[in-house]
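TASK: fixed-backbone design
INPUT:
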């Protein structure tokens, strides 16, 4: 179990392309999925975040649905290859810019190993995985959020129990 010690009051950690992005949770002892470059069965830290629903996100969702309809019509008329790439989820370019730098109270070096942003049913959700799993001696995890690699000035601290 973890306890959030400090976080922005509104949990907004970044504003990406006009969309507020909110810290949505952390799993400090997460079994990383196969294929992330770690030994199978390795643990890590997963940080969850989400685009805050707004008029702008609704407009982008509506535009995306129109793009899908247009893509489907091109595919129907001219074939899959001629239709081109399936339209990118509107949350993808917004959320992929937000990352986090993780540290702890014992000096562990965490590295980004993968994640996912946006998908059908999770249009404005994302998560990033970091390795390794915090050592048993660690009591605090510190999160410094970034946008395009630059700190946003937003931080969060979690106590590991």
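OUTPUT:
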């Amino acid at each position: 179990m973890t306890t959030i010690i400090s976080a922005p009051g509104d949990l907004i950690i970044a504003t990406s392309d006009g969309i507020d992005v909110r810290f949505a949770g952390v799993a400090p002892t997460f079994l990383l999925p196969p294929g992330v470059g770690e030994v199978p069965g390795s643990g890590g830290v997963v940080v969850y975040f989400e685009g805050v629903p707004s008029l702008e996100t609704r407009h982008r969702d509506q535009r995306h649905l129109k793009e899908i309809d247009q893509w489907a019509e091109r595919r129907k008329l001219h074939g899959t290859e001629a239709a081109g790439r399936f339209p990118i989820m509107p949350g993808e370019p917004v959320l992929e810019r937000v990352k986090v730098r993780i540290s702890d109270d014992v000096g562990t070096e965490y590295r980004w190993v993968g994640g996912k942003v946006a998908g059908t049913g999770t249009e404005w959700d994302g998560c990033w995985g970091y390795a390794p799993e915090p050592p048993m001696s660690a009591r605090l995890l510190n999160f410094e959020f970034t946008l395009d690699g630059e700190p946003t000035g937003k931080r969060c601290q979690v106590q590991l129990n």
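COMMENT: The first strand starts at residue 2 and ends at 6.
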